[in-house]
Amino acid sequence: MPPPPAKHQHSENSLSALLLSHTSWLTPLLRTGYKRRLEENDMYRILPEDRSKRLGDELQRFWEYEVRKAGKELRKPKLTKALLKCYGKSYAVFGVFTFLMEAIKVVQPVLMGKLIQYFENYDPEDMTSLYWAYGYAAGMALSTFGLTIFQHLYYYHVQRMGMKIRVAMCHMIYRKALGLSSEALGRTTTGQIVNLLSNDVNRFDEVTLNMHYLWVGPLQAVVIIFFLWYEIGPSCLAGVAVISLMMPMQTWFGKLFGILRSKTAVLTDSRIRIMNEVVSGIRIIKMYAWEKMFSALVTEVRRKEIREIMRTSYLRGLNMASFFASSKIIVFVTFTVFVLLGNPISASRVFVTVSLYGTIKLTVTLFFALAIEKVSETVVSIRRIKNFLLLDEIDRRGFALPEEENNKNSLELHNLTCYWDKSLDAPSLQNVSLTVKSPVGLLELPRDKGVLRVKGQLIYASQQPWVFPGTIRSNILFGKELNTQKYEKVLRACALKKDLGLLPDGDLMLIGDRGATLSGGQKARVNLARAVYQDADIYLLDDPLSAVDAEVGRHLFEQCICGLLKNKTRILVTHQLQYLKAADHIVVLMEGHVMAQGTYDELRCSGLDFVSLLKSDEEQERRPQAADPDKLSMLSQKTIRSCGSSTSHNSLLPAENWADQLPGETAQTMAEESRFEGNISCDIYLKFFTAGCSSLVLLAIVLLSVIAEAAYIFQDWWLLLGVLLMVGFVLSALTAAAVIFGFARSLAIFDGLVSSSQNLHNSMFNAVLRTPVHFFDVNPIGRILNRFSKDIGQLDSLLPITFVDFYQLMLQNIGVVVVAASVIPLILIPVVPLLLFFLYLRRFYLQTSRDVKRLESTTRSPVFSHLSSSLQGLWTIRAFRAEDRFQKTFDDHQDLHSEAWFLFLITSRWFALRLDSICTLFVTIATFGCLLLRDGLEAGQVGLVLTYAVTLVGNFQWTVRQSAEVENMMTSVERVVEYTELESEAPWETQKRPPPEWPNQGLVTFDRVNFSYSADGPLVLKDICATFQPCEKVGIVGRTGAGKSSLVSALFRLAEPQGKIYIDGILTSEIGLHDLRQKMSIIPQDPVLFTGTVRKNLDPFNQHTDEDLWNALQEVQLKAAVEELPGKMETVLAESGSNFSAGQRQLVCLARAILRKNRILIIDEATANVDPRTDELIQRTIREKFRDCTVLTIAHRLNTIIDSDRILALDSGTIQEFDHPYILLQNKESALFKLVQQTGQVEAAALLQSARQVTSERWSSFVKRLLFFHTAV
């Protein structure tokens, strides 16, 4: 229920009136929050001037101007200058509020001193003095009221300024990420960018709060010294000397904070990068049983990070302890010198001096110190952001798409040489000259020399399908208007109609992060449909048929590529040679050179054998670094252009009905992020505090705190006695005790809280590692990373310092009340109702505040998810020229988060303003009450009451606010604890351990197996009964969504199957997951490499010798490529292994399988995205190296499994047939026969011949063995 814009206008433009009217417009929202949980539609719309786009564009202009100016002046650009020009003047104005606030704090002790002097010289007959006393009392009341107003104006404006800078910086970081060149992407990581958005930019929220104290602090100190000199003369210099000694220490602390922040940020980058890789590659990690390795990796990085955080926390502890101890030291030193100089002590002198020292202590040792600390940390963050913003961007100047008069689409390449990375020897393209009627997708490939001219609108469909979080419809439309007729045609052409009919919400179903709710085939078809719907001039299709089965592939080729797009220029990259005859022109690239080009007939007449060319035994070239390695594969393979041609193949099904006859698939649905309701439970607090230390340690900390506070309290008590009795020895002992125990208390609490953060992080990480893969399918990566970045960041830094502040103030307040009540028991009368009202107000406020804070956390997750998704699909976004639209979506996510953040800011002001208003009333009552009860009071008592009224009220409301802040920050603990209690999969090891040599045969038996990815999900495998014999080679086929990959998931127990699976007679459900998974090898469809050395990627547990590793690399023909790396096997791979091409990453997975030497090997469509040459190498290696193993191969390329001993055909999760391939091909009704026919007549005949030949060879071998046995007998 957003308010009308007018309300927003009132809330901003008339802020002073708003504060004076107690922010009454927020009260209805707080009442709503008190009654029920707040939702996103309860939040107020963001103010126009706070929108992400407006703020980002403004700061971007200043930054671009600074970059241009720096270029002219031959210096490095400074982001600080751009920030100062953009926000400096506005922020400077807010310094007026700081000045007025601190001026009032100086005036108040002087007025109080005058009031105490009245009581020292009390004369009931002197009415003139009484009138002056009333004037001083009124001045104190008015100054307290003014302080309240100026304080909240100041905090509102500077916090809003911090929000603006943060939002603008996030906008710029995302905009930069969209434009990064491939080389720049190799120099940064997703983890670093996430850390910039989650932690570094938050420094702007913090630094704006106290930065004005860098000039107000010293100025106020000079003024206060003047007043102190007036009160106690030269003795004040003793206290000033103590402060002067503390200031250099604070400055030194500030520099140390900056140094430690730099070290911590690098380690946090590394941790989040690893987490990003873990979440992205969790299936591979689980199937390889590598959880322990990654757990050790993250634990080690976290240990180093915590070491720096702990040092920072100790510094903070010393800082805060020095703040609380400094007042005791200053007062003790000052009055010791004052007495030694023979001066008489009076109540007015004591309390004015104490109050003035209290003011200077607060400003100089707290706010000034915090300003130095935060500025030091912010400088580090600004430098990190600046370095990111200065990374190279893709050069689009040469790739404009001009409209010529004849409006013809064309491409001209002339002696074009391109490198992904100039530091590598081999260019990706070398001296390529080509003139065709359409361009190829070279926009991402930096040119070294040559000419590339492009005319016409180009659309690109990537080899690796990319979808973004949103509906299926939004993924296909991709910003275009919905044209129902055209949309239906595209759905039919891309074989999506049946799938959408099976989904509960049809094309309005939400796609999860990384397309987790869709199968690989569905993602490929959505990816293709997006390109087709754009209605461009030129279509660059990078092997869109590899992820679908033969029948669907045939449909896509005939109905989409050569049907719906028949009047368009198309460039098709494909490994499926049966489609060559349909091409008008063929270009063959090898090693970056054009080997041949022409029509199919021309190339055949030239004697060129396509298949043998691509299956050359030459060692495959090493691919250079790239953000999207699949591009490299595209550029190194055959390129086919089919322009305006129709297919020459005959369809097996009528074209108009084919889409409806194709198989459909069900899909999973995304889970909404959970959000707690109500109070933070005591259980959460208990788990947080006990995570870092035992009950005995907690008891010791409490005892230490009580002793420190007792020393603190009794020093005040003896100071009062010192006024009356001149006692000094005990005062010095209590001062020493207060200082020593105060420091010990702060350090102990910080140590305990940071240890809690460390242990909770480790528990959360281990829980995430152990949870079933279904969790990762229904939770976006941004949602998970949000907990490991932002929430853990809160636990590491903000929560400890806030809690320590609250805890120390709470104890101090108790002590203040005890001392004051022991002198004037009547002071308890207003304190008790004040406390009760405060607690009621806190409860009323927290009901809403917690919900707003939780909303702020959940609205932050989409920002990270959108960033992660955009980086994955960066090339597609740029090819579609969709940067502006994705920037707008990012800005929308930011605006939603800003709504929650701004609401949290303004509700905090609502709460604080009411607390301070009540406190102002209390000070007024106490001040005038002393005058009304003047006949029975002494000056010392009045001084104590007034000093404690001001101190208690200020501290009391701040304590209540800090307690609310602690409660709000505990929502992060709540979210972390939630992830520590995730559902866990079966144990990694159980008491029943299989024999070390198990399995020694490789016999796999499925006995009535049903399988679902979640307890309430649909069955994807139904009543599977099959036995795979030892050393048998089994091919597994089926249409998209038939359950092929689910069979592998059931075997690896990625979710617990129903029924029984035996391996060599052992029931797999009775043994540990690691005992099972380590004994099987898998070569996955999507090869995954992790950041780390080549050695760690091959052998993470150091189980093999160097000789074994080099031999494995030699077997897969990667030895030469690895030897060329700077550190050979010790070379650290880039993020996601982008040093290698897709084919090379697949070969690394094959090398892993060779090293593991297991009796069971599963190949899950491992060759779908590689060229035939790499495919042949993989198949040959498998036949040689895994001759004595049971091999299960899932494949869409039928030629890779046609020589299998048996073929298993699946359909809708059930077994259709399971027999020898030649026997199945004899039956024209069999599923395998139909799949083979989809490949075309020539390919089908070749497959049939291969099956016949394999069967003949096996029969001959069997007969020979039988004759040998008979002869022997």
Order of strands across the biggest sheet? 4-7-8-11-9-10
Query: Residue-averaged pLDDT, rounded?
Result: 77
Compute the CA-based radius of gyration.
Answer: 37 Å
Could you name the CATH class of the largest domain?
Mainly Alpha
How would you describe what is shown here?
- Helix content is 62%, strand content 10%.
- The strands form 6 sheets. The protein has a 6-stranded mixed sheet, with helices on both faces.
- The protein starts with a helix and ends with a helix.
- The longest helix has 53 residues, at 127-179.
- The protein folds into 3 domains: 17-390 and 679-981, ABC transporter transmembrane region fold (Up-down Bundle); 410-606, P-loop containing nucleotide triphosphate hydrolases (Rossmann fold, 3-Layer(aba) Sandwich), CATH 3.40.50; 1241-1272.
- Residues 1-22, 398-407, 437-445 and 613-670 have low confidence and may be disordered.
- It has 1273 residues and is an alpha/beta fold.
- It has 43 helices and 23 strands.
